[in-house]
Design a protein that fits this description.
340 residues, alpha/beta, eight-stranded parallel β-barrel, globular
């Protein structure tokens, strides 16, 4: 695992645990199957004490079915009762801020006190698809700070005097998070006094720098009095280390496809990755997926407690790329027990 620098000590009380679900489409199955299993996972997670269940916006990927993120959030929220449901995140360059304010205002009206709005700065897809999605071809990710503040204005109570209003949405308590895989959004989240989540599950390199800049630049706001940072990591837990390593070969194949620039559904586990990837590809996957915790409950507990201590995060988000739904449920159940 990557070496990390010490962070301030935090409370020894149980760390809030949450789930990032990429709505993975499994080989030989359909998006409808994916959605059913996502809802089943959210229902179990609610019983196991997970705080939130987030879905990520991606496009033009054969392995991910969460492209219509707000629609899927409504489906999950409608099938659960208490767990927070939200976006991890909505890729704001793809949308007009007013549309997102209306969509999430509608969700927060239907499911009050349970909807989170996480915002990302990237398009969540390849350049060609980004052009097909983009509402304004002259727009740029550099417009992100302005668009975040525009969205905040639409959701504020004082926007009632504006000529352009988000109905529903205006005046509702919808927590906005900024998400990032670099230091850019970390600084912006600090300046705006918003919670921040880092995508260390696929971009480990800048985690510590981003957390440092977020805390260093944090300015208290009406939304948040002190910094609140979450980190997303890959977790594959099973009853034994050997079983977890076997399950992880599905995750390794998914990561390999990202490295190769190919798009395939999530593959079943294989006996070995030998002959599937080259030595260089294995090294590249290992670097990209550095913050991955694979093993029995005891192994994962030991590794994650070290990670939490080193980073000082306020909340842990877990993503588990496991082919069999029952094994995925078991992984999250063991994680909840390990971190209790």
């Amino acid at each position: 695992m990557q070496q990390t620098t010490p962070a301030p000590a935090f409370s020894a009380s149980p760390l809030p645990l949450s789930i990032l679900d990429l709505a993975a489409i499994r080989e030989g199955h359909t998006p409808a199957d994916t959605f059913r299993h996502s809802l089943e996972l959210a229902q179990h997670a609610e019983r196991w004490g997970y705080r939130r269940f987030w879905l990520a916006e991606h496009h033009n990927m054969a392995s991910i079915a969460s492209s219509a993120t707000s629609v899927l959030i409504g489906y999950i929220a409608g099938g659960t009762a208490t767990i927070r449901v939200g976006s991890g995140g909505v890729m704001l360059p793809n949308h007009a801020p007013l549309i997102i304010a209306e969509q999430f205002g509608t969700l927060a009206t239907l499911y009050p006190g349970r909807i989170d709005l996480g915002l990302g700065r990237a398009p969540g897809t390849d350049p060609l698809t980004a052009r097909a999605l983009r509402r304004d071809l002259q727009g740029s990710v550099d417009d992100f700070p302005q668009h975040v503040q525009e969205l905040q204005q639409y959701l504020s109570a004082d926007n009632r005097h504006s000529k352009v209003r988000a109905v529903p949405g205006e005046g509702l308590d919808i927590p906005i998070w900024l998400l990032g895989s670099s230091t850019y959004s970390a600084q912006l989240a600090g300046w705006l006094g918003l919670p921040f989540a880092f995508a260390s599950h696929f971009a480990p390199t800048h985690l510590q720098a981003a957390l440092h800049l977020y805390r260093e630049n944090f300015r208290p706001s009406e939304h948040l009095a002190q910094p609140y940072a979450a980190a997303c990591v890959n977790v594959i837990a099973a009853d034994t280390d050997e079983e977890a390593q076997s399950l992880a070969t599905s995750f390794h194949q998914l990561a390999l496809n990202i490295i190769r620039g190919t798009s395939r559904p999530l593959q079943p586990p294989v006996p070995s990755m030998q002959g599937i990837w080259s030595e260089m590809e294995a090294e590249a996957v290992g670097q990209m997926m550095d913050y991955s915790f694979v093993g029995s409950a005891a192994t994962v507990q030991r590794q994650l407690k070290g990670f939490v201590q080193a980073t000082g995060i306020s909340e842990l988000l877990a993503v588990s790329h496991i082919y069999e739904p029952a094994a995925r449920l078991r992984s999250y159940e063991l994680l909840a027990q390990a971190m209790a």
